[in-house]
Automatic annotation (TrEMBL):
Pfam families: Sarcoglycan_1
GO CC annotations on file: cytoskeleton; sarcoglycan complex; sarcolemma
Lineage start: Eukaryota, Metazoa, Chordata, Craniata, Vertebrata
Keywords from the named record: Cell membrane, Cytoplasm, Cytoskeleton, Disulfide bond, Glycoprotein, Membrane, Signal-anchor, Transmembrane, Transmembrane helix
Stated name of the protein: SGCZ protein
Amino acid sequence: LISGADAVEAQCKRFEVRASESGKVLFSADEDEIVIGADRLKVTGTEGAVFGHSVETPHIRAEPSQDLKLESPTRSLVMEAPRGVQVNAAAGDLKATCRKELHLQSTEGEIFLNADTIRLGNLPVGSFSSSSSSSSSSTSPSSSAPRQTIYELCVCPNGKLYLSPAGASSTCQSSSNVCLWS
């Protein structure tokens, strides 16, 4: 053991730091692993903790009254588990935003939306024409026509959704301009 003005160095097969009262191992190091045995590990640097490879833990928690942020500034963030991944906001909202496309995919099951209200914003609106030879086109409400308040949710052959003014029977048309230009 060498104790100098600038550093403390030790050369040994195993180094341990124990709690004075309980004798519990708080820190140990050998050639194969480093173990931190404290009940709580706190990293106080502004950049947080940086790991060169994988991290394995059963629990990650933020300080009380603090947000938890998992971030990958230049690449993707992957969470995977063989028995499922659960994201739960017990007392608040859950918000998912992205710059490009948001994919919800279930390869063997279903996607189940369960809420009192489900809203789909910014859907294009097609116009209904009773003539079979004319096609629907995207329209904006006219000031002279009565305001349409009930719409039918329609699906193009490629899966794109659009609204069509509701009628006595279905007003969805596969030849809708919304479908042709999507």
